[in-house]
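Form 7-S
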Amino acid sequence: MEKKQFITSAILMALAGLTLVEAGRLPFGTLKTPQAGFWPLILGVVLTFLSLIHFGKTMKRRAEKGSPFWAEPGAWKNIGLVVVSLFGFGFLFEPLGYLIAVFLLIGFLLRIVKPLKWWLVFVISLLSSVLSYLIFGSLLSTPLPKGIFGF
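Output:
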């Protein structure tokens, strides 16, 4: 199993390197006026960090010799709940709007799949939905659905 994880890390790192090389051939621009190479370069850097994190976790798991997450009791139920909640999110995204749909999704995942206290679920869900709305809706000017309440 660990061999597959190491291969995955190597493939992710190779993709990150390829992304960085190809992004370097494109004009970068500035933060105010990004050009064609801006996002590929950012994504290449993020993919590099994520592949390094994956490699590090694989090394740590190798040292601990733990079982995979799906071998734990109730893991398949949680996987099913995540898949169903993502389908539900897809259906509720337009009618409820971005803020409410993301709030409900994060809240459901934190309370049902990974049970946390209600106040912590509320705070994390609220911060996640508002901060992601500020990033995508305001900063990146992504058109997001307003929903039934107009926000």
